[in-house]
């Protein structure tokens, strides 16, 4: 039986803590400490760390236990390139499947994103950004792509958050997100797919620029 933290499996609790940044890259993950922190048995913590290692969030070092895996800019770019292909597929599928209620939801989400950028709420906008991408995946009904994307998101989330915090970045990404919403809500798969690809290409460019190498921009 899977040990839980309330209604939450231990692996989910540790994964969320890594994604939130409670544990920093290369930080050691000591089973005894995690067992106490999450009120879980050592066996369940060990199993959770093995699962997270398979997901790419944790790495196990011989004779030194586990630590949070550091993701380089280059790897974050590679992840974003894979995301671009899969999220473009999901955007096209979402445009085919979306219903009137979901159209209203995405349009309201776009308006809330506008208000967040206008009000300078960068953290709030970052959360809305993640919510939009998640809803596009859900509306698409493409479960396999959605599962892969969720695992990739966890690996690159720190870079995505740092990117979202860069001055001026929300003003760049907002029209890209609104174009995605417009294409999906118009039931136009090609337009939605192109808008999603353009957005992720912009993310990749910004990640490379953040790495300080203008030749990669």
TrEMBL record:
InterPro entries tied to this protein: GntR_C, TF_FadR/GntR_C, Tscrpt_reg_HTH_GntR, WH-like_DNA-bd_sf, WH_DNA-bd_sf
Identify the CDD domains for this entry: WHTH_GntR
**Segments forming domain HTH gntR-type:** 4-71
Name the UniProt key words of this record, in alphabetical order. DNA-binding, Transcription, Transcription regulation
Pfam families named in the record? FCD, GntR
Q: SMART domains recorded for this chain?
A: FCD (SM00895), HTH_GNTR (SM00345)
Cross-referenced Gene3D superfamilies? GntR ligand-binding domain-like, Winged helix-like DNA-binding domain superfamily/Winged helix DNA-binding domain
Any idea which GO molecular function terms this record carries?
DNA binding; DNA-binding transcription factor activity
PROSITE patterns the UniProt entry points to? HTH_GNTR
Q: Which domain of life is it from?
A: Bacteria
Name used for this protein in its record? HTH gntR-type domain-containing protein
| Species assigned in the record | Amycolatopsis bartoniae
Taxon lineage: Bacteria, Bacillati, Actinomycetota, Actinomycetes, Pseudonocardiales
């Amino acid at each position: 039986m899977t040990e839980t933290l309330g209604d939450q499996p231990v692996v989910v609790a540790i994964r969320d803590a890594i994604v939130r940044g409670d544990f920093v890259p290369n930080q050691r993950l000591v089973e005894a400490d995690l067992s106490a922190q999450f009120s879980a048995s050592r066996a369940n913590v060990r199993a959770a760390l093995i699962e997270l290692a398979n997901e790419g969030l944790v790495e196990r070092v011989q004779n030194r236990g586990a630590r949070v895996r550091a993701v380089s800019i280059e790897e974050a770019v590679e992840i974003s390139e894979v995301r671009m292909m899969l999220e473009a597929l999901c955007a096209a599928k979402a445009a085919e499947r979306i219903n009137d209620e979901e159209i209203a939801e995405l349009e309201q989400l776009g308006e809330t994103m506008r208000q967040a950028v206008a009000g300078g709420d960068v953290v709030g906008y970052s959360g809305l950004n993640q919510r939009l991408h998640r809803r596009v995946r859900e509306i698409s009904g493409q479960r396999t792509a959605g599962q892969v994307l969720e695992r990739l998101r966890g690996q690159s989330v720190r870079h995505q958050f740092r990117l979202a915090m860069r001055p001026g970045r929300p003003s760049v990404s907002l029209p890209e997100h609104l174009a995605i919403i417009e294409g999906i809500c118009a039931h136009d798969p090609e337009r939605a797919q192109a808008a999603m690809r353009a957005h992720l290409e912009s993310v990749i460019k910004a990640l490379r620029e953040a790495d300080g190498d203008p030749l990669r921009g």
